[in-house]
Amino acid sequence: xxxxxxxxxxxxxxxxLKIASEITxxxxxxxxxxxxxxxxxxxxxxxGHGDPSAFPSFRTTGIAEDAIVDALRTANxxxxxxxxxxxxxxRSIADYLSRDLPYKLSPDDVYxxxxxxxxxxxxxxVLARPGANILLPRPGFSYYEARAACSRLEVRHFDLLPExxxxxxxxxxxxxxxxxxxxxxxxxxxxxCGNVYSHQHxxxxxxxxxxxxxxxxxxxxxxxxxxxxxxxxPMGTFGSIAPVITLGSISKRWIVPGWRCGWLVTNDPNGxxxxxxxxxxxxxxLDVSSDPATFIQGAIPQILENTKEDFFSKIIFIIRxxxxxxxxxxxxxxxxxxxxxxxxxxxxxxxxxLCLLEDIGDDMEFCLKLAKEESxxxxxxxxxxxxxxxxxxIAIELSTLGDGLARIKAFxxxxxxxxxx
Length: 421
Description:
Elements: H1 15-22, H2 25-34, E1 45-47, H3 62-73, H4 87-98, E2 110-113, H5 115-127, E3 133-138, H6 143-150, E4 154-161, E5 167-168, H7 170-176, E6 181-187, H8 199-212, E7 215-219, E8 244-249, E9 262-267, H9 272-275, H10 278-287, H11 294-306, H12 309-330, E10 336-337, E11 347-352, H13 363-374, E12 376-380, E13 389-393, H14 398-414
Parallel strand pairs: 1-12, 3-4, 3-6, 6-7, 7-8
Antiparallel strand pairs: 2-9, 4-5, 8-9, 10-11, 11-13, 12-13
Helix pairs in contact: 1-6, 3-11, 4-11, 5-6, 5-10, 12-14
């Protein structure tokens, strides 16, 4: 500058966004990938993410692919979509979800979003007001924390109980809630725990929400991806007890996370969400945000209505086999314990026993060194709110999973105190 004066600019980055991004799964995975040894000739084993679509066994059904092509070629979906989504897609989603409910949803209950992540953004934005707080599960999906931080919505955590199949600690929920609590979040089937809640437990959750005067946000992006003793029961079943907001997408069940088409659904037979202005706020939020691609919306009816059951059965069979393999192999690694055999979703949570390891202070250090030494990516528990735990992906080729677990075992043996593992 002239005369040596320093130019002063009137803009700067938003530090809150940087902090929020660092606590997301994507933020943790990017950090771990940076530490992989580039000189290691072995392929990196991705046991940290929830995207199995890269593996041949998890390719989506041809019916879904054909639906996309058909919708595109009609030229009916080259225009802007309505704020809430195209009517045929909303009607199809309402019919699809109503199969499991004691009442019938209307297309007006359904709002299309850019994947389940935008559905999370919308509902947290709608609920955010000065002084409000929301109850989130621990462990849970860190995107809720990140979005709550962006919306300046206070977060309070209730624990899930591993000894009870990761059920919600409902006593803790009641103790945490106050007059400023707006909602509680559940994830069923569970990410990161692989649990599936029973009908009885879900009913108790609804009754607790009613007692506290809050709504339930239920993340059901893994709906029907179950392979244990508990069948999937949608939280919306209990919408007459307490209002329920259901979040979902085609991402996981159809193995197409990159298509980015999800939904937010109001399960509220008593009309409470409309009376309290939540419905209008959802529409208002969508008015100032982007929409999922219209040709993907146009493909939704064909995808939901024509996919054969054998496609879903095949996916569930592979994940069940992977869950069995993971659970048994972890028993061979003394410093890691799996308290609950996964019965749904695509993950399991395992606990670290750091007393058996040298030169590893916590779960983050474990994962960083594992990435560097073995080219295996596992998500540290701190990313899900559980320090000194790990989240392992089971939606992966069996051979790749076996290779990854073998490398984890070798890593633990190498870092064992006095080489006793």
